[in-house]
């Protein structure tokens, strides 16, 4: 019967005008309990801004299917999902809920890399670059970027195809990094097969993922010490 924390995150939102959904309106100021709370929030804000800039730089990337890939390579582990946005996916204004998009992104994680039970450990720098309308067809693509001994990082893109009668072409709507761990039937972490990088881009993304992994690990250790 004891309670324990299972998930923890900081979510960022922007308010939109009800008359013009493309216009971002100002956020009313809030009263902080203490000065440290405001400083901590500003620090997280600056960190997520840097994450967004880093992720936006990849918005030109496209994940192409690979024919007969070798096991444990980036091509072998990548996957995609196509989804038609319906009314139940959207807000009253006809735009997709962020939670719906996140769920679809989580489902595209490639489990066949290690062929075991995969669970989500964390989500880093998920960025909603542009809104997705009802009736759009979205393609969610995932590719593995990094593996440690017991975790794997997946980069996920969401591309939206607008209405047939709209002049706009496909655009990048959302992007993020998901980290997963492999578990046994007893719920214990299992070793993850190492990712085999083949191209220079894959090697570069692996090193970038390693940097994010070490940074996240250090941040978690610091939080545990504070707790």
From TrEMBL:
Record GO biological process: acyl-CoA metabolic process; fatty acid catabolic process
Domain HotDog ACOT-type: from-to ranges: 75-186
Bias (Basic and acidic residues): 201-211
MF term (GO), any: carboxylic ester hydrolase activity
InterPro entries registered for this protein in UniProt: Cytosol_ACT, HOTDOG_ACOT, HotDog_dom_sf, Thioestr_dom
Region (Disordered): 199-227
GO cellular component: cytosol
Annotated keywords: Hydrolase, Serine esterase
CDD domains linked to this entry: BFIT_BACH
Keyword presence, Transmembrane helix: no
Record carries keyword Hydrolase: yes
Protein name as annotated: Cytosolic acyl coenzyme A thioester hydrolase
